[in-house]
Amino acid sequence: MTARAADRARYDRATAHLDAPLALVDLDAFDANAEDLVRRAGGKPIRVASKSVRCRTLLERVLAKDGFAGIMSFTLAESLWLARSGFDDILLAYPSADRTAFAELAADPKLAAAVTVMVDDVSQLDLIDGARGEGREVIRVCLELDTALKFLGGRVRVGALRSPLHSPAQVADVARAVARRPGFKVVGIMAYEGHIAGVGDAVAGRPFRSRAIRLMQATARRELAERRAAVVRAVRAVVPDLEYVNGGGTGSVQHTAAEDAVTEIAAGSGLYVPRLFDNYTSFSGRPAALFAQPVVRRPGVGIVTVLGGGYPASGAAGPDRLPVPYLPEGLRYDPQEGPGEVQTPLLGSPADDLLIGDKVWFRHAKAGELCERFDVLHLVEGDAVTATVPTYRGEGRTFL
């Protein structure tokens, strides 16, 4: 029996009393992935990206482990909810225009102490001040650096379109503007190198593309390390008591941690290890989050149909954004239909061994987005469900 076949047997036994559709997290794999992230971080703390987890119970579990500290959130409303739930170190990774939430933040000392907001434009400070109302708490601010690799005077760029702040002088100018403004305090710098951390460098069947990606990433790492260090020096000249410099992501933990200028690493997807993280040479993890769909039809030889399953992930549309049939091994989509909103045909010889009501296990393309489809996660240890916990959706929280 292969390791994957053994996992399927465990998951089927653990959930035999449960009807699909359902989602589970294998806690043995989750904990092993957490340990691997800590090892790769080389002693620097890891801030957990909540968008990749979207379950308070699992956020609490990982933050109780040595090597993890703080949350990186994705909306201001989520940040306030987490702070009210007892989390006390929350970095909002994206700028917000939520005036109602800013009014709450500025009016509550506990929230203002726990939550740091992202800024890359002075006009964002204007929006916050306009939303304060009677609130006069000091707002903690993190400045985001654009990590893109640029060529030909900026006409060619590799990297996500995020912050407009690319040079040390640009970041330092915004730091000065914040420092001069009553009611704000710069406490951190963040730089997410998505073209390194979020792009696999071992694309199956594409050796030349894989080599090109590795070359690009090596060049980008060198350029960013030099520029990030210069940015930190420039900002510290304005804000000597800077609390942290955050960088990285699951795919670049060990590389980012090697930079002296970086004080903490961001990661989250590496806990669940969705399919987009299968194609890396620098690390491998254990798939920890899966969902099951029930077999509801047997249209013919080598074909079964499962209920639903059309759960595409965000990003540029393409086959890599689709879930993949994982267990039993050997199933594939019908190229004419793909994964459907209400039914999904699956092809392959394993289909002939599946009965009506059997479970087919899938892996989602991206980590936390799976939790937007399910109210609860069944936590599996060995071959038993030991707890069933709500996702954000199960707590009535749909932030985006």
Explain this structure.
This protein is α/β, with parallel strands linked by helices and 400 residues long. The protein contains twelve helices and 19 strands. The strands form three sheets. Strands 1, 12, 13, 14, 15, 16, 17, 18 and 19 form a nine-stranded mixed β-sheet that branches. Helix 11 links the parallel strand 10 and strand 11. Helix 5 crosses helix 7 and helix 8 runs parallel beside helix 10. The chain starts with a helix and ends in a 10-residue tail after the last strand. The relative contact order is 0.17. The mean pLDDT is 95.
List the helices and strands and how they pair.
Layout: H1 3-14, E1 22-26, H2 27-41, E2 46-49, H3 56-63, E3 68-73, H4 76-84, E4 90-92, H5 99-107, H6 109-114, E5 115-119, H7 122-131, E6 139-144, E7 149-151, E8 156-158, H8 168-180, E9 184-191, H9 194-197, H10 207-238, E10 244-247, H11 253-257, E11 264-267, H12 269-272, E12 289-300, E13 303-307, E14 324-327, E15 332-333, E16 343-347, E17 359-363, E18 376-381, E19 384-390
Parallel strand pairs: 1-18, 2-3, 2-11, 3-4, 4-5, 5-6, 6-9, 9-10, 10-11
Antiparallel strand pairs: 1-12, 7-8, 12-13, 12-17, 13-16, 14-17, 15-16, 18-19
Helix pairs in contact: 5-7, 8-10
